[in-house]
Amino acid sequence: MKIVTFQDEDRVGYGVIEGGEIVDLSTVPHAPPHVRALLDAHGDGLEPALRALAAAATRRVRLDAVRLLAPIPNPRKFLSLGGNYASHLAESAKIGMVRSPTQVWFNKQTSCVNGPYLPIEKPVLSDQLDYEGEMGVVIGRRCRGVKAADAMAVVAGYLVCNDVSVRDWQLRAPTHMLGKSFDSHGPMGPWLTTKAEIPDPHALRLTTHVNGELRQSGSTGDMIARIGDMIEELTSAFTLEPGDILSTGTPAGVGGLMDPPCYLKPGDVVRVEIERLGHIENRVEPQPEPIRPTVPVYP
């Protein structure tokens, strides 16, 4: 099944896709309020819960009549794995990157989460805006100490990610966090495809196009660390929770390592597509004027 979060005028809801329509699950009495809460409540039995909610739903909306948002707009954690494709490691050798003997994870602040078709902001602070097409794994069950062989039991499903990167800010520190976390730099979607639909998540073609030009072409089968390895590594240290997103690495073809570098600029359109998971497509726009946060007034 495919789970979407959508905006219909001023209302945000979620549902499952049937044909060209969304079965609105969020209007079912006593339904969880959002997708992360749905996973909190039903991570161990997601498919049966979706079917039961869909059977009780009375509202449908056309898929092309709403705005799709990130399937999980409010994840607790958004983690990304660096250097997980040999082809990307090979092209990164020119800037001195070498394969680590361990997995190299970095944090993307969850405030960067963005919808599948919403704009990516080109920062005022940098001209080194880049793309990284990746598959995202969504955790479905609270877990710690999971062995690789058992890891698929805690996976809810998969989605398409673009690990948008500001390269000069990325290199400010080994953590990469600043350059990976600018607002709008975590587009994902277009929906959460449940794992029952994807028999082998390590056999999916991944492509990235910029303005129609093919930049990245690979397969999730090229990943060095497999999904089970990732979950075992992470849960050896800390608890993963329902709705956490693991972005699993990118193949060769990023703009910053082209000769000459080819960074994104306003007006460019980036399309990341993964076989059976769909595609996301985001236009680059100039960063708007900074919005000054209002100071809350407490009674």
UniProtKB/TrEMBL annotation:
The keyword Plastid does not apply. It is an enzyme of class 5 (isomerase). Residues 80-284 form the Fumarylacetoacetase-like C-terminal domain. PANTHER family: FUMARYLACETOACETATE HYDROLASE DOMAIN-CONTAINING PROTEIN 2A (PTHR42796:SF4), FUMARYLACETOACETATE HYDROLASE DOMAIN-CONTAINING PROTEIN 2A-RELATED (PTHR42796). It comes from Rhizorhabdus wittichii (strain DSM 6014 / CCUG 31198 / JCM 15750 / NBRC 105917 / EY 4224 / RW1) (Sphingomonas wittichii). This is 5-carboxymethyl-2-hydroxymuconate Delta-isomerase. GO terms for molecular function: 5-carboxymethyl-2-hydroxymuconate delta-isomerase activity; metal ion binding. Keywords: Isomerase, Metal-binding. InterPro entries: FAH (IPR051121), Fumarylacetoacetase-like_C (IPR011234), Fumarylacetoacetase_C_sf (IPR036663), Rv2993c-like_N (IPR018833). Belongs to the FAH family. GO terms for biological process: carboxylic acid metabolic process. Residues 1-71 form the Rv2993c-like N-terminal domain. Gene3D superfamilies: Fumarylacetoacetase-like, C-terminal domain. Its EC number is 5.3.3.10.
